[in-house]
Amino acid sequence: MSSALLVSIFNDVIGPVMRGPSSSHCAAALRIGRLARDLMDADFQEVLIEFDRNGSLPTTHESQGSDMGLFGGLLGWDAADERLPGSPQALRDAGVTIRIETVDTGDEHPNTYRLTLRNPRGEQHTLIAISTGGGMMEVIAVDDFKVSLFGDYHETLLSVIGNGADLVKRVTALGGVDEVVLHEHCGRQLVEVKAAHFLSDETIAELRKACPILSVKRLAPVLPIASRKDTRVPFTTCEDMLAHDAGRNLPLWKLAAEYEMARGNLTEAEVIAKMVDIVRILRRSIQQGIAGTHYDDRVLGHQCGKFDALMRSGRLLNGGALNRITLYVSALMEVKSSMGVIVAAPTAGACAALPAAVIAMAEEMELSEEDMAKALLASGLMGVFIATRWAFAAEIGGCQAEGGSAAAMAAAALVTLANGTLPQAVAAASMAFQSMLGLICDPVANRVEVPCLGKNVLAAGNALSCANLALADYDPVIPFDEVVETAQRVAGQMPRELRCTALGGLSMTKTSLAIEARLAAKKTAACGAPTCGCAR
Ligand code: SF4
């Protein structure tokens, strides 16, 4: 398997650190925008964005944050940049004109972005990319050349005519690059060089002596963990991991660290330290959520402060640790909806269940941040097994892909906190995922708040119950990999309307439509522009 296709816990499962309601909209779009900006050397004044009529984006690109992320990326910003909510205005202030159109292109993937960028000097480039869930994306075409670019390399793109094969040989002979690919389209050629660094100006000047090079573009990586040629990981399925463990009964977190060390060329200490950093970000966000957040364009206001007060004064029903888990879920969801910093774990919509379960339970058990990090690592490995063969995108799998994955991952994490065995952690994940199959995605008013809050609470509560079942050696019956396969099969049987298009389920209730209209009117009044998707 090419290293570009190898899932990384920090790239694909626990991350990105970001702002916005949906990772498959905000974070992925931001990465696409940054690559498009690089393709134009940050010099453009017009951007045309096209979405296929039958995809999910015509109905969700604005309310779920694709616009905010994409515009932020076009400005060169980071996914956690505090200016992101103002990216439309900032792009307009920068003199860039944006047009968003719905077209009939028959795109296979429901989350396909088609961008055309121009500058006044007549330079124009196109880029087509898909958002694959949890903030991950793949650029599938550049200027009509079919490519496969994940943002995990420094990419140098050399445009040539006729001498591409020779140039490939010369670049390969230089050494120090991971992959050199020749793309051809209608008599034109593009040489793509994937490496840990860009080809330098001096190297390109040397190459130009032998091969006329029409243009050079440098696309910087957008993922935290880079890829390398010939990367090998110890396993990619749960079954293989259990075979690799060979009865040693290593803790799941240890196997997760082994995986990520191989994937990212990191030491165990580096892997744990990265996850501890994430734990600290999450704990800050939880406190911020409980203290209270404000944001105009959302369905729900601040609710978790009252939950906290009732919990502290003993006026809630006795849910044990589940009450603190529920509080933390609620706090993180409020931070997400107010454009605060969250960690997509595995997605922004389902950002709360796993971190809340781990942090609340660890606090109840008086465990350390390193213990929390190890539990998140364990969950991350279960996420790797999901993302390797499937996806976290609700547009593909409904909420079973987001909430279901989060529940499975959280269950394994909770068993890890309790020092359960490896088979128990895997059993907990299997049982938790089984209970979430078929869950639809139907966000109210096209905002990722209702029923998302409830679904995160459901995922966390389910994870706690399944962790306890597993600790008591209940039999999951169906192995984890088969449950993932089943979720994928069920996704194929779900109608498009129930997969994050806001065209079915609760999204179509009278109340949901009324809230959506009210929020749209409020936004129009605030910015003085119609809700047409232009860069307002
Ligand atoms: S319903 Fe589930 S999948 Fe859909 S937006 Fe909400 S959390 Fe995400």
Task: Describe the protein.
By secondary structure, the chain is of the alpha+beta class. The protein is globular and about 75 Å long. β6 (136-142) and β7 form a beta hairpin. The chain has helices at 9-13, 23-39, 57-60, 66-74, 87-93, 164-174, 201-210, 238-245, 252-264, 268-291, 304-312, 321-337, 353-364, 369-389, 394-397, 399-417, 422-434, 452-471, 480-492, 510-527, and strands at residues 17-19, 46-52, 97-103, 112-118, 124-133, 136-142, 145-149, 154-160, 179-185, 188-195, 215-219, 341-343. Bound molecules: iron/sulfur cluster (SF4). Iron/sulfur cluster binds at residues 349-350, 394, 399, 402-403, 441, 443, 448, 451-452, 455, 500.
Strand content: 5-15%
Low-confidence stretches: 529-536
End-to-end distance, in Å?
43 Å
> Helix amount, in percent?
40-55%
Shape, principal axes of CA atoms: globular
**Largest sheet data:** 6 strands, mixed
Mean pLDDT: 94
Radius of gyration: 23 Å
Total number of β-strand segments? 12
Strand pairing plus helix content: what structural class? alpha+beta
